[in-house]
Design goal:
Elements: E1 4-5, E2 13-14, H1 27-31, H2 36-41, H3 56-75
Antiparallel strand pairs: 1-2
Organism: Streptococcus pneumoniae
Protein name: Collagenase-like protease
Keywords: Hydrolase, Protease
Length: about 80
């Protein structure tokens, strides 16, 4: 996959490498974060993050985002 800037009427420009990786989470990694409350309510105790092909910075960012979501839900 790649990330593009697509201004109307102009050629698309790849943004790959211009945006710091830690701020460019994949759609798959972001898709389940909204379901944290459902997972906790249904007894899920742990999450598996696929990170073999990702950088340590990317895995750290995803882990921190999910931890923040879990903590926010548990505090509310």
């Amino acid at each position: 996959y790649d990330l593009y800037d697509m201004p109307f009427g102009k050629e698309r420009k790849s943004l790959q490498g211009e945006i710091p990786e830690e701020f460019s989470m994949s759609a798959v990694d972001m898709s389940m974060i909204d379901h944290i409350p459902d997972m906790i309510e249904n007894g899920v105790d742990s999450l598996k993050i696929e990170g073999r092909m990702k950088s340590i910075h990317y895995v750290s960012t995803v882990t921190n985002c999910y931890k923040a979501a879990v903590d926010a839900y548990l505090e509310s």
